Amino acid sequence: MRKQTGLIFLLFIAFAIYAPAQQWGLYTLYSTQNSNKAYLIDTNNVVYHTWTFANNARTGYTSHLLPDRSILRAVARSGNSFFGGGITGQVQKVAWDGTVEWNFVYSTAQYCAHHDICPMPNGNVLLISYESKTPAEATQAGCTSSMTIWSEKIVEIKPTGPTTGEIVWEWHLWDHLCQNVKPDKDNYVASIIDHPELLNINYATQKDWLHANGIDYNPELDQIVFSSHNLNEFYVIDHSTTTEEAAGHTGGNSGRGGDFLYRWGNPAAYQAQGAKNFNVLHDIHWIKPNCPNAGYFVAFNNNGISNFQSCVDQIAPPYNGYNYSWTPGSAYAPASYALRHNCNGHSYSQSSSQQLPNGNMLVCIAESGLIYELDPAGNTIWSKNAGGIASKAFRYSECYVNGGLTVEVSASEYEICVGEEVQLNAVVTGAANYRCNWSSNPMGFFSNQTNPVVSPSVTTTYIVTALSDDCTATASVTIKVNSIPETPTIEELDGTLVSSSPEGNQWYHEGVKIEGATGQFYLPEEEGWYQVSVTINGCESELSEPYYYVFSGLTLPDEAAGLRIFPNPTNGIVNFDYPDSEFYDATVAVVSSYGKVVEKRKLTPVMDFSNLSSGIYLMKIYTSANRLISRKLSIMK
User: Fold this and answer.
1) Model pTM score
2) Domains of the chain
C-alpha cells in the first residue's frame, strides 16, 4: 500500500489537471443526532432510501452502510450510568427494510460504549468504551489526584444472536500508563519522554480524561487508530495481538503488545518538544488503499484554523514495517501535516471527512449540518444541509448500494477459423455508469470498448474488467481458433480422381459443387475441370488447382495383371477369372461415383452385386501381393 502511494498520487495529480471535476459515487448516508431516521440520498439530493427507527433507539453518533445494504449504527441509549457528549451504550444492525437484526447493549455502571463505531471485514464491530476507575485505582496507578477517571477501552464484538455478542478481543488503556512521580508504583518511569508508548496518567487528568471519539481499522496492517478530543492526539495500537498480549508490552506483528505503536498531534503529552497540531480532534482514520495518499492519516481539526473555522488535515506517518520510526528523546515525525483543507465553516466538535478514489473529499460539518463534496482543486461540486447535527456522513458508489457490480460476457461465435472476426459483448449490471477494460491471454489485446471486435490468430481467452467507482467485476470468454487446412492436390489413378486429403473433401466440377461428392476418391462421369477443397473443424481450404479429366469410357483391358472381369456392363452378376494365385486371398471394394465404399468382401469367381443401383462404380481389388488393381464397373438393370 505505502510503496504505491507516490505513483498513485502522481496519477491522481495528472488526472486532476487534465480531467474535468466530477462527483464520485452516487449515494450519501447521513443521520442527524438524536433523530429516528437515516437517509440515503443521491447526488441530486433526492432521497433514495430512508430507515426509520424506534423513538427509544435514536441516533447516537454514526451509521455505516454494510455490503448487504443494512446499516450499523450507534444508538443513544437511555438509562446509561455515564452522561456526557457522545454517550451511546448501544449498537444496532438494521436491515434495508427496517428490521432490527442485531440490538446489542454495551452499558453498565462500570463501562459504556460512546462515540464512534467501526465495522470490520469479518463482520465484527469495534466499540470505544468508557471504563470507570475509582479514586483508589487512580492513586494506585500513580495519579497525583485522588479522583474518579473515565479511562478508555476498545472491544471487538462478534454478534452471536439478536441481542447478544461475544467479546473476541479487547484492549485497555489502563494497562499502558506511566508516571514519573511515584517510584513505588509499578508503572513508574524515570523519564516520560523516553516512553511515548505509554500514556502519562498525570497529563491533563480529569474525570472524562481522553474523551476518545473516532476509531478506524486497517486490515492490511491489522492495526487500530483512535483519537482523543481532550488530549489532541491520536494513537495506533496493534490488533494482531491476543487479548492477553494486548494487556502487556510484547507480542503481535509489531512485537510490542498493546503499547502505542504511534501517536501524533500533541508532543507535550509525552514531554517532547514540538508544535501542538490539533485544537479539538475528531474522526481519525486511514486513507483507503484505492485513494490518492493511501496510508495517510486524516483527522478533523475542529478549531484548526480558528475558533470560527475548522480544517481537515492529512498526516504522512513514518511507517517502518508494522512499526513507526521514532528518534528517542524527540516527538514522532512528521512535524506538521502534509495537506490541509480549510473547511467551508466551523464545528466546535464531532464532524468528519471521507477521501474518495478520484481525489475528491466529502466533508461533514456536524453542528451546521453541512455536507459537501469538493474536487482536488478545492471547488465545491455538491452540498447538502442535513437539517440537524450530523456527526458523520459517508459516500457510497451505486454498485456498492445495489449489491455489487456484475458482468456477463458473450461472443457472436465461440469457434472460428483463422482470419474471421468475432463480436465480444459485455453486459454490466449494478451501475449505470461504468467502463470496461479488456485484455487477453495470450497477451496482446487491449480495449476500453464495451463490445469490441476481435480477430484472433490462435485460441484466445478475452478478459473483461468492469469498473464503477470502487466496484469491479471480471468475466472471460474463450474463442477457439482453428487453422485453415492445407490446399489439397488431385491425382488420377486408373480413371479415378484422388484427393491428397483422406477426410473432409468436397468435389467441384467446372466451379460447381458436386452434391454428395465428399470422399477422397471421385469417379467422374464427364470430362472437364475438377477441383476439390478440404473442410476440417468448420474451416475450408482453398480450392485445389484445377485438374482436367478426359473421359475414356468403361472398357479396360481384361488381360491386365492376368485378370478378366465379365460381363461388363452387367445386371449385377460379375465373373472373375484370375489364374494368378495372388488373387486367391484378394479383397474387392466397390466405390460409388461419390467416393463411398458400398461393398467390401473377399474375391470369389462369381460375385453378385445386384443389390447396387444402376450406375458407374470403381472396383478396387487388393491382392495378397499388396497390389491395388482398379476396374470400372457399369451396372445396368
Assistant:
1) 0.73
2) 5-396 (2.130.10.10), 406-482 (2.60.40.10), 490-549 (no CATH), 560-635 (2.60.40.3080)
